[in-house]
Amino acid sequence: MSDLFRQSVNTQPPPPQSQNLRPKPTPIPTQGRSSAEYDDYSSSSDSSASSAASVATVRPSSREHEAPPTHWTNYFEQELFLERRDGEQVGKYHVYLTPPTNLKKGPLFICHHGAGASGMSFAMFAQEIRKKSPEAGILSLEARAHGSIVTNASSGEAIVDFSLDALVADAVAMIQLTAEKQSWTTLPPIVLIGHSLGGAIMTTIASTHFKIFGSSLIGYCVIDVVEGSAIEALSHMKTYLSSRPSIFSSVDDAITWHVRSRTIRDQRSAEASVPSLLVSSPTGKGKYIWKTDLMSTSPWWDQWFQGMSQKFLTGRGAKLLILAGTDRLDKELMIGQMQGKFQLTVIPEAGHFVQEDVPEKTANLLSEFFKRNDRSQMVLPPKVSDLIAQGKKV
């Protein structure tokens, strides 16, 4: 994780004109909406509202017009808008979904991005996992201020709470609301995947909220985050944020900066995910700024990763840790690895955004991880008592 900050401190913004000659991508129109804009958009759907339950809008892939290169329809089948009121809080959530072809067999990979990223961070992974396992489903969540929004029911103002508990509650709500919208009476076999901050969120869910999955949780995967080095890297976070460009003259320039700074090392992944990180500048003039104000999350940075190693080792299900080769295992994880408590894979050619830098390799790892740990595929030998009851010699 610390590699992200080290490699970016001295990076320079791209030149005003990008040399990329591909058509300019259009930012996903649902990203960065205010609460009022979200309401206007959702109210045009056919969904009905319930104060205590959920509201969802599904936008299936367009068959009438060819989608632009970075459009979500190239990677997911559905875009869902989900709403839930909990006391004085109203959560309006945004997720991408490709349902598994068979709910009994799955798998469903539930993905959570890192701080400052979006659900499209798993776009290329979703595309590659379907090549590897056409029956697989992918649910990519978006945290508050990253595509989702949680507001005060009375004032309509966004609630500024980026504590781990709040982010975990949001993720659990998105999973449950998606299941309700899809009319899933039981959850398919599930693998949780979290990158960076998303790893802390998914690890917490696997260790403290596993009961919501029943027997469906197969395991979880954490991508490029280890408690010790993550907390150490946070001391460089403000330097990193101040060093990166605050405004771009075009979406292409933002993509170019991500690739040239090696923040994202795969051009296709940058083209898929970067547009969703931006919103039009309030000043207009065709400029773009970051959708998420990461500095506003700083009061909670230290809390995000504290105790993560212990939760990772004690969570329910099989465990996979994928690193880019820049983080050291802390003492707890080193002992856990020697005891065979989790699978460790290091991909030195990748940067911090492993699932974007090497999406095919990441998809292969997760596909094999599921197959190896899927209990429904295990065939146990018959019991001796059953053989005797059948009159067979033992």
UniProtKB/TrEMBL annotation:
Compositionally biased residues, Polar residues: 1-11
Organism superkingdom: Eukaryota
Keyword entries, A-Z: Hydrolase, Serine esterase
Tagged with keyword Metal-binding: no
Enzyme Commission number(s): 3.1.1.-
InterPro entries listed in its UniProt record: AB_hydrolase_1, AB_hydrolase_fold, PPase_methylesterase_euk
Gene Ontology terms for molecular function: protein methylesterase activity
Keyword Hydrolase: yes
Catalytic reaction equation(s): [phosphatase 2A protein]-C-terminal L-leucine methyl ester + H2O = [phosphatase 2A protein]-C-terminal L-leucine + methanol + H(+)
Region annotation (Disordered) ranges: 1-70
Pfam families: Abhydrolase_6
Low complexity compositional bias, start-end: 41-54
AB hydrolase-1 domain: residues covered: 110-364
EC class name: hydrolase
Active site: residue positions: S196, D224, H352
PANTHER family: PROTEIN PHOSPHATASE METHYLESTERASE 1, PROTEIN PHOSPHATASE METHYLESTERASE-1 RELATED
Job of this protein: Demethylates proteins that have been reversibly carboxymethylated. Demethylates the phosphatase PP2A catalytic subunit.
Family statement: Belongs to the AB hydrolase superfamily.
Protein name according to UniProt: Protein phosphatase methylesterase 1
Species per Swiss-Prot/TrEMBL record: Zasmidium cellare ATCC 36951
